[in-house]
Amino acid sequence: MAWFMLVVAGMLEVVWAFSMKQSEGFTRLWPSVVTLVAMLASFGFLSVAMRSLPLGTAYTVWTGIGAIGAFAVGIAVLGEAASPLRLLAGLLIVGGLVLMKLSSSA
């Protein structure tokens, strides 16, 4: 259950990162509200997951999901560059997340 909570927290991190971009520096109301609500929910799910997962594993996976998710949304939705080097960097992050999961005893 902790891993499920951690994945949800990571996905909410993607939501708040995207909505923060859409808020244009918190000058637009609804994207700003979505950002703050998603942040609080993300932190809440992360804190529940950390009850049974090691700090280093939980935090690394949470930020990794957020980083890869934001990277993917940037490419798919915002039209950001998908150069081979950027894609390789993303693949390396995913590899690190897999290794964190495999090395975790929880």
TrEMBL record:
The keyword Transmembrane applies. It is found in: Cell membrane. InterPro entries: EmrE-like (IPR037185), Small_drug/metabolite_transptr (IPR000390), Small_multidrug_res (IPR045324). It comes from the Bacteria. This is Guanidinium exporter. Belongs to the drug/metabolite transporter (DMT) superfamily. Small multidrug resistance (SMR) (TC 2.A.7.1) family. Gdx/SugE subfamily. Keywords: Cell membrane, Membrane, Transmembrane, Transmembrane helix, Transport.
